[in-house]
Amino acid sequence: MQIAKVCKYFCGFDALMLLRSLRNKRLMFIGDSLQRTQWESMVCLLQSVVPDRRKSVYKDPPRRIFFVEDYNATVEFYWAPFIVESNSDHATKHTVQKRQVRLDSVDKHSKKWEGVDILVFESYVWWMYKPLINATFGSSDVKEYNIFDAYKLALKTWANWLESTFNPQLQKAFFMSLSPTHLWSWEWRPGSKENCFNETYPIQRPFWGAGSSLEMAGTLKDTLQGMKAKVTLLNITQLSEYRKDGHTSVYTERRGKLLTSKEKSQPDIYADCIHWCLPGVPDTWNEILYAYLVYEN
User: Fold this and answer.
1) Please, what sign has the CA dihedral across residues 250, 254, 258, 262?
2) Start-to-end Cα distance in the chain
3) Which of 33, 94, 117, 245 is catalytic?
4) What angle do CA 116, 119, 122 make, to 5 degrees?
5) Which of the residues 32, 89, 104, 272 is marked catalytic?
6) Which residues of the chain have pLDDT under 70?
7) Is 52 a catalytic residue?
8) DSSP symbol at 199
9) Tell me, what DSSP letter sits at residue 189?
10) ∠129-126-67 over CA atoms, to 5°?
11) What whole-number distance in Å separates Cα of residue 66 and Cα of residue 58?
């Protein structure tokens, strides 16, 4: 009997058990399109046990919301690729030529985060676009910051907000570690000049890709460790590093449309080696989150 109880926690994802723990609660994923994929994964994992007429999905930009009526539970996604405010915060029209962030403000976003029972934050890939980023901090003057300094300041702003509003008796907060990319096949197959296209099995040796910045990861870890409020780091980086086979590759969208046959024939240009397939790697991330939520309850 005891073994059966333990297995309920650790032998697979039990959607009904998670829904019970989410009764009368809100779970919100906050971040970029990678975080949106994790939200989609969670919706897929949960919706299979909910009758059609007792669930709904709708948009309230910049949110997407999955509602389960019988449990009065919502699983939400909120678009905020830098966590702090930026000129890329529009829910759909966020492709801009010159990205700019407000390193000292989350006010516009945080109004939608306050009072949420479970917050899951993520922000990494959008910072890595270029070595420098245009930003403001403490005034309206726009300056160029290197991404490491900018990320540190942004996390400090986010941490200050969380510590000023967070109620550890009623709320839980998580932050995802960085999601790896597999843009250069020479990293796992020396001498090659390809990417993740046509990869069909994981890397079989110790591996840490060049796209995963140890400095950025260290900044996040130091920030969380220095906070008074408890924020759990969901460390999904190393387990995801091996999955060069898990990306959407040429079976992806570009500006809201599936790739054409011509585009698919040019994987060196169009293969997406950043985002993940579903079902796939993000399901594993959610199984880790599930363990925290259900086990602690």
Assistant:
1) negative
2) 20
3) 33
4) 145
5) 272
6) 1-11, 297
7) no
8) -
9) S
10) 160
11) 7
